[in-house]
Amino acid sequence: MKKILFYIFIIGLVSLIPLELYSQEVKQIDYTSDRTLRDPKYPGAIILSKVENQVHFIHEGIDIWCDQAIHYDKANFFKAYGNVRMQQGDTVKMRSNYAEYNGTTQFAFASGNVKMTRPQTSLETDTLFFDRIKQQAYYRSGGTVRDTASVLKSNIGRYYMEDDKYSFVSNVVVTNPEYVINSQQLDFYSESGYAYLYGPTTIDSKTSKVYCERGFYDTRGDNGYFVKNSRIDYENRVLQGDSLYFDRNKSFASATNNIKVTDTLNKSVITGHYAEVFRAKDSVFITKRAVAATLQEKDSIFIHSDTLMITGKPENRIIRGYYDVRMYKSDMSGKSDSVYIDQKSGLTKLININRSALTSIDTRRSPIIWSGNNQMTGDTIHILSNPVTEQLDSLKVFDNAFLVQKDSIDGYNQVKGKELTGLFVNNELYKVDILKNTETIYFMRDENQELTGINKTLSSSISILFEDRQMTDVYYYKQVDGTLTPPEDFPPNARKLAGFSWRGEEQLTRKEDLFAGQEPPELVKIKGIPLPEAQENFFDQENSEEPLLNENSRLKPKDLKDKEINSLKTRTDSTTVVPVLKEEKTKE
């Protein structure tokens, strides 16, 4: 009775074993061959040979054909020689001179002119390992992948069949009719043509060069984005930023956050936090704390506005700035509603776009220039520089010209008229002419700087000479009316001409003043490209119950290691491996 109960218990335990375990029983390799031979040189094996039809092996969804083979039936292993073909389903095909296959571990190895083809790509290499359980292929002897649009080469490569993904490492080169990519590591998805770039990478073409240390590129759409130490070099411009987008077909690039656009020909730099570059039109649009800096030998001019646009070829380049324009130079600064700079002629225009539409508050955005303690305003201001020497030449104020100089002690010297012309020597203002219906208020002082009188004069025009940015002489032409009044007799409320507005508190005295009163822009959060997941060792045998290699394999355990480029240099001539046996035996 006890024995019966024991057997019942055992049967019950067996019934609890999942059915899946039964299905994991190793299936033997099946084959067909025109000729079957035995040779004492190959104990435990039979030699299969082609007469009219190639030797054909079938195992677990894979078909292998060859001219000759050594088959170890009990070991479930064979070596194949000559015109070897493998096919897995309808999607994976491979050719080689030599191959071997372990039916127990479903591990294959091929060498000699190996070519694996998929619907979108083909892989050519010297030696290839194929793990059917993982559905991965691996080479380390240099490989070439041909895609519908490009040719990809690397020293080491790994193919993930389920994801249709190649992972290339070491000296990766992608060649396309339009560009060449060189990368340290590149993941390529053959169905989409998407490439993910890791490590120092360049994309070279006739019109541009892209550099990044992490990025994405659509090899078929010819566009991509780059997020680490990225830059795009054009013929005469360099674009840098935290994130760059590039579209070769549209000759377009954009950048986000901490942008720098360098004009290598005109020695200017533009910065901001969003930019668009149109290479074919040779134009740049930039906003979010946009600043254009024209680099000069001894000094630089900085222009800041809400938006900057740079257009035209290098020899005819135009800079436009819109809304709340601020200009700074060590010896001059200014503000306006908009600015226009012609780098060829050296002309800078400070413009009020629509003065009639401005409110009383907005009038403070009308053009203004400061030089020392001199302030010049008007409806439009033109500044002319010598484009060769980069020296200031002259300036002109159109309509409602108003010159104010803060007196050394108290009060303001003032000159107003319809137009103003200023001349420079060595970048210093030395003469100003004001024309048409001029008025002045001038504080007269003796050699001890004591105020002796206040001169208020009307005239047709006025010339003023400067020394060290201070008024030294004033000349009146066709004077209509002028009086020198003692200070005590000149009412304080009459010491300012109509339209007077001193804006000295707005004067830019350093580069940082370009952003005075402005909140820093809220930067877009850049969505980065994560690093690739760490790959497990292709020859991972720790979790395998069976060794990948059969004892009759050409390979040695030391060969099953992920290593740098290495060719196994296997022999591929079948006649040197398996002797041609003339004696025919029946198939077993």
Question: Your description of this structure?
Answer:
Helix content is 4%, strand content 54%. The model is unreliable at 1-23, 355-362 and 569-588 (pLDDT under 50). By secondary structure, the protein is mostly beta strands. The longest helix is centred in the N-terminal third of the chain and has 14 residues, at 2-15. The chain has three helices and 37 strands. The protein starts with a helix and ends in an 11-residue tail after the last helix. The chain has a 37-stranded antiparallel beta sheet that branches. Pfam families: OstA_2 (PF13100). This is OstA-like protein. Residues 540-561 are annotated as: Disordered.
What are its keywords?
37-stranded antiparallel sheet, 37 strands, 54% strand, rod-shaped, disordered N terminus, disordered C terminus, OstA-like_N, OstA-like protein
